[in-house]
Amino acid sequence: MPNAWLKSNPFMSMWLSAANRIAGSLRGRATAQAKRRVSAAVSAGSKGHPKLWAEAVAAACGKTNPKRKR
């Protein structure tokens, strides 16, 4: 006699397929958002990086912009 618990359930299969499709869509959106945030952070960091180094070198050398005397 075949075991009824080992039969495939078509409704469960459809439900799991739909859940997997939704999870894949959400995973793709989350990955795309993460990539956008990383690229924005890298570009923002690269814009401020030269200014940071210039200020640090100027402070280390003791060079400041003196005021002009008239």
Give a description of the structure.
With 70 residues, this protein is mostly helical. Helix content is 74%, strand content 0%. The longest helix has 52 residues, at 10-61. The mean pLDDT is 83. The protein has one domain (12-61).
How do the helices and strands line up, and which of them pair or pack?
Elements: H1 10-61
The major pleated sheet works out as: none
Q: Gyration radius, to the nearest Å?
A: 30 Å
Helix content bin: over 70%
Give the overall shape, derived from the CA principal axes.
Answer: rod-shaped
- The total strand number stands at 0
Brief descriptors of the model:
70 residues; 74% helix; mainly alpha
Short overview:
By secondary structure, the chain is mainly alpha-helical.
